[in-house]
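Lab manual, section 2.4: Encoding a predicted structure.

Procedure: take the sequence of the chain (400 residues), apply the prediction step described in section 2.3, and record the output as structure tokens. A sample record is shown.
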Amino acid sequence: MELIERVADEDNLREAFSRVRARKGAPGIDGRSIAAYQADLDRNLSELSRLLSQGRYQPPPVRRVYIPKPSGGERPLGIPTVADRVAQQAVLQVIYPLFEGTFRDCSYAFRVGRSPHDAVRKVEEYLSGNHWVVDADISDFFGSVDHSILLYDVSRVIKDRKVFLLIKRWLKSGVMEEGEIRYAMTGTPQGGVISPLLANVYLTRLDKVMEENGLKMVRYADDFVIFCRRRWQARFILELVEKVMVKLRLELHPEKTKVVNGHRDGFTFLGYRFIRGYKSPRPESVDAFRDKVRHVTRRQQPKKLEMVIADLNPIIRGWGNYYKHGDTKTLFRSLDKWIRMRLRCFLEKKRAHYHQNQRLPNYLFVRAGLVSLSDLKLALAPCDGATVKDSRIRENRTCG
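Recorded output:
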């Protein structure tokens, strides 16, 4: 069976739609929602299968939106139509195994069986005895990918002409913004289902050079750090990375790329701040978490406590489950106390006061189902036979 036939297979398309539906997402330029596409799913998938198998599928432009960046400013994001997301997912399901064997061990993003926490653990491993770090940042990576280089690397793996041309069309499909369609000569559409795979394909060239030189690198998408024992080695490595960037027609960010002593000066990677043998959430992440909690627990809203906690729990779980792997015991305890204070202020519709702790004890929030950051941490690594229930009992005996 040819590659395009596997892509266009209706069972493959149905699985692709299930994954697109699970990720949810907004409509593309056609305004068609996932629910609307699902309402006539059999006919939609049959038509998509026909166009793909005949090589006649033409990806529409993506809808451009902007989302705020944690560090300030905005990041452009392209939203494909639902049908296009299904098509991209269907291609991804078929071609990903072909590329997986070409990826290097230092690459952690968008790969089956690998996670950001795996990358963080590898960083800790490399830091032991390798305190000098090349902390690199590529300027506008997704907007700077050279199409000719990327398509050449894709063609070395994908021999089916229809699938290859389909990938090329996605790179050239354009962006609709303010009613106008703009076509870019470089870049991959951020927000596209297949873009993460193409990013890994492109940066595998960097991975190979680092591996051939025996260097200890950890890369997660376009974010990477390299470790060595001596400062002069780090400077040499940075020069080597710059040469690779020239060949890839990319640029390192002049201010964000630097050589640092990872133990003394510290550095940030995947949201964690590494310094003096510890890792913890970077301050900007803590501030962003607090802002979300403030919004959900604002005093002047006509909701019951249980409703506010229901909105709050997913935020606590999401943030806590990511950062519970760090040295966060004290931070989590402090944030738990602050969250309960915010809830007390919400209930009494006024600023915090010491006597609130006695009027509204901790067990009130436990009964209402409030998730505790400390419990998430304790569930990760129980000690001395303690359980989550034990931790709640200890908290309920004190106010705070």
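Check your result against the sample. DSSP finds 18 helices and eleven strands in the chain.
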